[in-house]
Amino acid sequence: xxxxxxxxxITALTGSLNAWAAKPAAEPISPIQPAVITNxxxxxxxxxxxxxxxxSKSGAISCNSCHNLSMGGTDNLKTSIGHNWQKxxxxxxxxLNSRFAxxxxxxxxxxxxxxxxxxxxxxxxxxxxxxxxxxxxxxxxPQYVAEFKSAFGTDAVDIGRITTAIAAFEETLVTPDSRFxxxxxxxxxxxxxxxxxGYALFKNSGCVACHNGPAVGGTSFQKMGVVExxxxxxxxxxxxxxxxxxxxxxxxxxxxxxxxxxxxxxxHDGEAATLEKAVDVMGRLQLGKQFTTDENASIVAFLKxxxxxxxxxxxxxxxxxxxxxxxxxxxE
Amino acid sequence: xxxxxxxxxITALTGSLNAWAAKPAAEPISPIQPAVITNxxxxxxxxxxxxxxxxSKSGAISCNSCHNLSMGGTDNLKTSIGHNWQKxxxxxxxxLNSRFAxxxxxxxxxxxxxxxxxxxxxxxxxxxxxxxxxxxxxxxxPQYVAEFKSAFGTDAVDIGRITTAIAAFEETLVTPDSRFxxxxxxxxxxxxxxxxxGYALFKNSGCVACHNGPAVGGTSFQKMGVVExxxxxxxxxxxxxxxxxxxxxxxxxxxxxxxxxxxxxxxHDGEAATLEKAVDVMGRLQLGKQFTTDENASIVAFLKxxxxxxxxxxxxxxxxxxxxxxxxxxxE
Lengths: 332, 332
Known about the structure:
homodimer, peroxidase (chains A, B), electron transport (chains A, B), cytochrome-c peroxidase activity (chains A, B), mainly alpha, two-stranded antiparallel ribbon, about 325 residues, Cytochrome c biogenesis protein CcsA (chains A, B), transport (chains A, B)
């Protein structure tokens, strides 16, 4: 059979119609796809680095300290604890599904996960190290040197490769197979009536204007306090710190709602301890809506269907330091 | 066939002779046996509790913070970091193979792992919580309540059950299959000449008088500084703090040498950064021997053959807090 442009057009149309028939209404949230790993050695190296507290001055703080993969990729604290027990200025966002965000950090100051990964290592209030010292530490550990070579093909250990590896691991931290995604994919029994009512309200009330896409957020910066001002306990000014524009003050990256049941407390200052409170404040301040107790409960029930499959891997064993490894300095 | 006492005696004797024939010389170190898990639900619950920072006041310190299972069951710091970045008085010993020790803590003040597990939770310099608050937190988490019921058969959550579960998990943290154990079991190629020479020196020099048994230590309390006094940077007085006897001053539990390659820095004050230094100090202060550089290197080479199979399990996912869960207080 000769394939004509018309045949192609008809085939494409039929395909679209079939998809349309299977999914009668386009949903503003799309399912999370499982991670596709193209360089497993790089991901394994990044996993070790993610868990390695030797990337901090104290030798005690790792990426996993504040983005704990046993706890929804967060530390479940209002704000995190940094070097010398310093109180962080802002709530640690989850690392889970962070690959779907338009930028990293609440103010989007890092364009991607690789750029983000270098931040906390050198932040005096967080891991309080320097990129140079982090490189020195890793270069002194023979097994790490071998793993960098194996992952990258050549010997060099530098901060670019360190953050590339950490980011490659973080790219795999997606949480497919939530009940909501099962429902999206056609399993109509995956959600109960209350949860479906909550999802309808979530869409009809306008929550979905910002919380959309695969991560149910992370696709835009929005002002915290649209209808009513938000009185934050955090000093963070948001997007204006990056753009220098006054119009961007209190604009923050919309957080993902995936696994939101696990990522309490909520908001950039962590002041909402419960999902009920977060939904109530969001309704009033962002949408000018006072949800009834029942409405609030339905939305919360829907939000809890967004909990997906959590990270599923073996605890890494870190390569030991050598006699040449610089000592950690926890109390200096 | 009728089994007579004589037949039993002959069978027993033959068994002994066979064992003796296979192992021509009795070795003072015995191989680590793999863990036998009789109550997997209890072990799984204990694993979650071991990784759960909600057993601390701050919500940030778990058992795994100072006994990190990615790092030989230690934190690789001279002394640990407690609540509010307090400097601990003593080096955190490894949890790996701790089941083989005659008692727990450097001064042996806990008779077993269960008794030990309750200590750091309530120690104001460590996790700074109370047993009552720890119980309140866990009782407020429905999935934990269900897991306690499943592991113990009834509903109660109390500190006895919490520490029983943590200890049951810790009992599984053994590290079989080191190269040295392979050699012990008959694989004569498992060690090279230098390592064998190191082991011979380790025995002939008297190290083995204290470092023996399956854990290569942990079987007695001994004075730190027998031939020459040891000038510790730690204020800890050792066993006398438990017994009240002046004769027990500076007596400490002999640490295990299993996985010693991973458990740096060494001694109760963590002042020996390298194995070479630890071997040198031990030789001089405990045995009155000055090992040559070659002898020291041989013993170090032998010690590195004691690294066994590290913990091998999936990172646990912790059950989320409920709205009723008491909030962590990191900055109070």
